[in-house]
Each structure stands twice: as C-alpha cells, then as structure tokens.
Amino acid sequence: MTQDALIERLSAIVGSDKVRTDADSLQTFGKDWTKVYEPKPSAIVFPKTTEQVRDIVLLANECGLQLVPSGGRTGLSAGAVAANGEVVVAFDYMNQIAEFNAVDRTVKCGAGVITEQLQTYAEEQGLFYPVDFASAGSSQIGGNIGTNAGGIKVIRWGMTRDWVAGLTVVTGKGDILQLNKDLLKNNTGYDLRQLFIGGEGTLGFVTEATMRLTRPPKNLTVLVLAIPELDDVMKVLNQFQSSMDLTAFEFFSDKAMSKVLARGDVPAPFESNADFYALIEFEAITDADMDLSMSLFEQCVENGWVVDGVISQSETQAANLWRLREDISETIAQWTPYKNDISVVVSKVPPFLREIDEVVTREYPDFEIIWFGHIGDGNLHLNILKPDALPKEEFFPRCNKVSKWVMEIVQKYDGSISAEHGVGMTKKAYLPYTRSEAEIAYMKAVKAVFDPNNVMNPGKLVDM
After folding, report:
1. Is the pTM of the predicted complex or chain greater than 0.70?
2. Which domains does the chain have, with CATH numbers?
3. Is 85 left (phi over 0), alpha (psi -120 to 50) or beta?
4. Which residue of 184, 193, 325, 446 is surrounded by the most CB atoms within 10 Å?
5. Known catalysed reaction(s) (predicted)?
6. What is the DSSP track for 111-127?
7. Each residue of 140-189: pLDDT tens digit?
8. What pLDDT, on the 0 to 100 scale, is given for residue 363?
9. Nearest partner of 455 among 187, 99, 58, 73, judged by Cα
10. Contacts of 119 by beta carbon, 8 Å cutoff, 6+ apart
C-alpha cells in the first residue's frame, strides 16, 4: 500500500485530522523513554472509540500493516517503539472517565486516561486508586495494564492486575471482547482478562477498563533510615513488617541519594551518612501507631542495623522525604542510564544484589552504578550511568555484554528479568532466563490464536 493510500484509508476511519505523518509527530509518538532504537513509524492514528480501533485492526489484517500501541510513552523496555514502519495507534483521545459506581467502588476508564487523572477522580469520590509511580502524571491506564505496572505501593496494594475488574479489548483478529464484565466472582473457565494484562499489546489492544478503587489511607507517615549494611536492610524490613502493615518499603544507595541531593532542591534527611537507605511508609491512624514505629526504630538502632533516621511530621515533610526516592530516575536521566528491572523473592535479595553488584563493579570499573528499588517486594533497579565522553553507540553494547552475566544470576536465584517494566524489545533476548522453553512455546501459541497475522505490536515480548 502506498503512503497516500494508507493515509486515505486511515482517514476514512478516524477523520483526516486524527492522522499525522509530520516529522515531529512521528518522532514523538514512535518512541518511549528508551533510547536504544530510532523511531520510524509510517503514520500516527488517533482513534476515539473501540469501533474505530477495531476498524484499524481489520485494515491492518487486510493490507498487511503492523500496529504499535502508544499511551504515555513512559515505558523502559521499548515496548511502545515503532522502529520498522508500523502504524502507531495513540490512545490520547480515549481519555474519558465514566460510569462511577459507588457501591461496587469501580470506575470505567478509556485506555488513554492518565494515571494521575484516575487518582484525582478517585480522591474526589472519597476513594483511592493505589497503583502509583513516578510517571503517574503522564502514563496511561492502557499502558499500565499492558505492562502490569507496579510502582511504590505494591507491598500493600499489589500490581495493576489486582485492580482491573473488567476489560474491553480488540484482538489481533479485530474481535471486540468484553472480559469479566466487572464481576468480583466469576468462575466460568479461563480468565482471558489476565492474558491482556501484562501482554504488552501483543494479543490485542485494551480500549476501556473498569478499575477498582478502595478506601483512602489515613495519615500516611514516612520514615527514612540510614543503614550501614545491606543485610540489615532486610532485618529492618522484617522488624517493621512483623508488627505493622506497611504501605511502602523502598531502598536506595548512597550514590543514588547523592545524585538527588546534588541538584539542591531536596534537603538532606539528616547529617549521618550510610551506604544504604530505607524509606518506610505506614498509616499512623492513632498515637499508638506512631509509638510503635518509634519503638521499632529504637530497636533497630540498638541492634546496630540503623545509624540514623527521621520521621515526617507533616504532609510536606513526607513529600520531601519521598522525593529522595522518587526523584532518582529523573535525576540520573541526563547520564542516559542502562537500566535493569529485576526481582527475586524478598528473602533472597541481599545475596542476589551483592552477587550482581560484584560482577557489575568488576566489569564496569569506569562506570557509576546506581541501585534503588521496591525492595519490600523484591524488585531492584540496577542503573549503569553513561560517562559523558562515551557515545551511546559504544556504551550500550558494553552494557549488553555484562547483561548476560546479570541475567545468569537472575536465573540462578529463580528471579525475573523484568519485575514491572515489561519485556518489549530490550529484554526479549533474555526471556529464556526467566521463562522455560515450554512456557515460551505456549506464549507464542497464545499469540497465534489472538493475532494470527502478527499485526499487534510485532517484535515485542515474543517473536512469531
């Protein structure tokens, strides 16, 4: 199909004003936050309804087109990159929130609804949407579902998967499916909804989702602790978690915090220094909750696990303490970091992290290594910073060389090569370190059932 014919056919579906081919749009909508692949889409199309998405998919099957979904483009695995002339389906205009149900505590969202938009809407209803992360101001619900996004509250409220009551999807064949119909209990065989959650748009595109809400937490309080030894981080986690219901338990290294503090807009939490820091969040509903947290802190100090700490006394102070952790990704972005998003069961974190750190430090003596992550659920973010003088064309191949050794350690500990960022293109080669040969064969078979012509986000997650 010629480019002119493609534009004409797409315009007939969505309108000429909802198809773009200008260079700026192709560059913007053809990529995500990764910088490994150059975006080269053929066109960007902006549907407004599920039926329009279906018609786009049917056109793709008819004419041999390939489609890439685009949400907030905050992904870190090149799952939303169109690098081979694909048509990008952008969900920005499918951003309506509707059908709030106060009894069921659910709300219907278009795939293009921004995460923060849903959080604000829930708050206006006196409720709470708990899936939260640094990109909440730009990430979209459809993308969150496609990658089963996690974030900073998983230890208490789980992943996106736990909050999806129902889905409307368009499969790779162009079928519209209504999955689960928002039911809490539905024991009628295969839950196809779960295949699309975390499926990265390879089976079909989510166009609408019914999301569950919950009661808002009360008086969230933040405690930041300086911890000299890695093993002691897990001892602190166990000490607090055995007595309190935590809403977050985050971890970051001294190097990570130093980068944030160097910008000058976030104050240091205290004068003491340590190799590692933990951020603990909990509900201080009563004075007894605060007293318990102070008692647990004192016990940690007495045991030598903690050398200093600070607890928030206001929402403003709590927000500033959170910035020590949440500002890390934005702060280090200027160094074009090579990222790994890996996980193991929580009890294995110390030896797992130590073994990887030894390999990376040995093989990258001239690279700066930044560790942080959601250690309370076993999820660690390894970031290798690019030296200013080293071109990315040399930097990424050097990182890829050592990634194989990192993934071998992940496999040794029965961990995951991607805890929450998805697989996309950047991690596809490493999938066998987490999934068996038989599992991958079944995944490919599922892909073939829903998308036999491989039109839906090709080249991501698994190859046909």
Report:
1. yes
2. 3-92 (3.30.43.10), 97-212 (3.30.465.10), 220-329 (3.30.70.2190), 336-438 (3.30.70.2740)
3. left
4. 325
5. (R)-2-hydroxyglutarate + A = 2-oxoglutarate + AH2
6. TT-BHHHHHHHHHHTT-
7. 999 999 999 999 999 999 999 999 999 999 999 999 999 999 999 999 99
8. 87
9. 58
10. 128, 129, 132, 136
